[in-house]
Amino acid sequence: MLLQFFTITDIFPMFIKILSSLPSAIIKNSSFLLQRPLTTMHSNIITKEFGKFKVQVLPALSDNFMYLLIDNSTKEAAIVDPVAPDVVWDAVHKENVKLTTVLTTHHHWDHAGGNKELINSNTNDQLTVIGGDDRIDGLTVMIDTHGVDFQFGSLNIKCLRTPCHTTGHICYYVNGGQDDVVFTGDTLFLGGCGRFFEGTATQMYEALIKILSQLPDSTAVFCGHEYAIQNLKFGLHVEPSNHYILNTLEDVETKRKLKEPSVPSTIGLEKLINPFMRVENESVQKVTQTVGDPIETMKMLRDLKNNL
């Protein structure tokens, strides 16, 4: 009876991780699983202003983030990865905005698992559900080409295909004129990156170095999980003398003590603190003994992180 030594608080996060890696079809057809996502407030709800738009950070599950993107001029709203529809609708009503769009980064249950309930509980016009994978519930717009642009109110959103964590992963780059943000799901985290569940080190190199690193350094990064502290500690393991990592870790630890979310980061900061964004730096390559081969560095770093 080993389970008697564990509390539900111990078991639930492990259960969520198992569910998040399963195809949505298994989840939908398994009556013994949760009928709806459970929501825990692991962080406070905060709002970040960006001139023409704002982003409300909505915590969900044990460490997930959802994001309510609001166009200030049209009061139109989009939700990124609405795994907890009740929290989403509460935010929509409090902000007095019209939800029109769902931006799904990938099909995993802890990101797309709330789509069906959100759609069924919607009383306004049909929601546009955007994503890059036919395993996503309620999908109405399939993004199968990198760099597709669409207009959201007064904002432009570019869909960046970043396959690796899943084959259909999409990051959403929002350009509001002077301000821009990117929603990176489980491709890029603060200080880290997602596991290569359905892809390769070459694909993650392409996603992080050839695509996301090319965005303006000032671009705010809103990722899919609150993994910052563990990622930054890994970064210090790789580069113990990197003072940017140490300073960021201290800042994040202060935030987390107050239940403030660590997000957003920026592309510029990630280039300084994130070993997976630094695979072309010799200081990182020396750790993995892969000098001159950034893709092999990416592979070795991920293996090292997985085994720690």
TrEMBL record:
UniProt cross-references to Pfam families, sorted A to Z: HAGH_C (PF16123), Lactamase_B (PF00753)
Pathway terms, separated by semicolons: Secondary metabolite metabolism; methylglyoxal degradation; (R)-lactate from methylglyoxal: step 2/2
Keywords: Hydrolase, Metal-binding, Zinc
BP term (GO), one: methylglyoxal catabolic process to D-lactate via S-lactoyl-glutathione
HAMAP family: Glyoxalase_2 (MF_01374)
KW Cell inner membrane (keyword) present: no
Name of this chain's protein: hydroxyacylglutathione hydrolase
Domain Metallo-beta-lactamase stretches: 63-225
Gene3D superfamilies found in the cross-reference section: Ribonuclease Z/Hydroxyacylglutathione hydrolase-like
EC number of this enzyme: 3.1.2.6
Group of enzyme by EC: hydrolase
Protein family: Belongs to the metallo-beta-lactamase superfamily. Glyoxalase II family.
GO terms of molecular function: hydroxyacylglutathione hydrolase activity; metal ion binding
